[in-house]
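Example record

One chain of 133 residues, shown exactly as stored in the release files.
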Amino acid sequence: MRAFKLIAILLVAYVGLVIAFESMIGYFQPGGDGTLVITTHDGAGNSSDRVVSRLESNGQLYVAANHWPRAWYQAALENPQVQVTLDGDRGDYLAVPVSGEEHDRVNGEHSLPAMFRFVTGFPPRYLVRLDPQ
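Predicted structure tokens for this chain:
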């Protein structure tokens, strides 16, 4: 019984850590040289900005949904016409979901550190290629 309680406490603490980390990332949206801002639109025409890490592979621009909260990703799938602000320049892009060999290649080139995966709760990673329009 004592082992069960310890495991339950550790599990609750871990879930709390993941929620706290994901909440801080979502609230502060840290940006820098390796990030861009993607602007998505919902069905009602409302836009939403999200800071995401930019990935480059074979001359193409990609972004990844690396966290459990991924409303921007769902919005990009529903309406792939997005805007991207990169190095101060804003442009129109088409968000194309990536799978198969292309996903494996880009994911392999830009693998996530184990500690990052741990503090984010090991979410599945989805990639989007951003094709300029």
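Notes: The first helix runs from residue 2 to 28.
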